[in-house]
Amino acid sequence: MPYRKHLSKDLILKKLIKQQGGYVLERKKNIHLHLCASIISQQLSTKVAAVIYARFMQLFNKRNPRPEDILSVTDEAFKSVGLSNSKASYIKNVCRFFIENKLTDAKLHKLSDEELVELLTQIKGVGRWTVEMLLMFTLGREDVFSVGDLGLQKAMIELYNIEYANKQELASKMEAIAERWRPYRTYACRYLWRYRDAPLVPM
Hints:
Elements: H1 2-7, H2 11-20, H3 31-41, H4 46-57, H5 67-71, H6 75-80, H7 85-100, H8 105-110, H9 113-120, H10 128-137, H11 150-159, H12 167-178, H13 185-197
Keywords: DNA damage, DNA repair, Glycosidase, Hydrolase
Organism: Mycovorax composti
Pfam family, one: HhH-GPD
């Protein structure tokens, strides 16, 4: 795996790679659904988000509802499965945007990372972080770095002993370190997240 050889030049990542093994990035279908799932998961634990998403999917009599199917659901039904009014509104914003712009999985997979960020952050309720997660976990892009992610910030502060006076300085130092990981920054993020979730040995 080329990414493991490249990232192992960073001695800290080399230890994490040895502990955690490898990762496989997937290119998934039904991107609109994954974007809806990202909105559902905002500010929730993984476990709670999974429960609400499962209830959300039970509102439909098909496995992969289209944007049109989701728009047909009433606000009351969304509320009944645990969605706030704002999240229900954001999900409908996503679906309207996909319909109005005739977006398909094929079209989205052809766009660059920054083109996707620019396009999808036009949707109210979808910020840069949400699109970065989509790029990593749904579109399988290899070189995405989410400098604003709290988990990555905590992992890098701890592992790389980053000292900073403000958020701007922290972001600058994180990005400088991450430059060495190109073109495989997504994989580096996966190792850092896993470290935050369950450190296997003291670093």
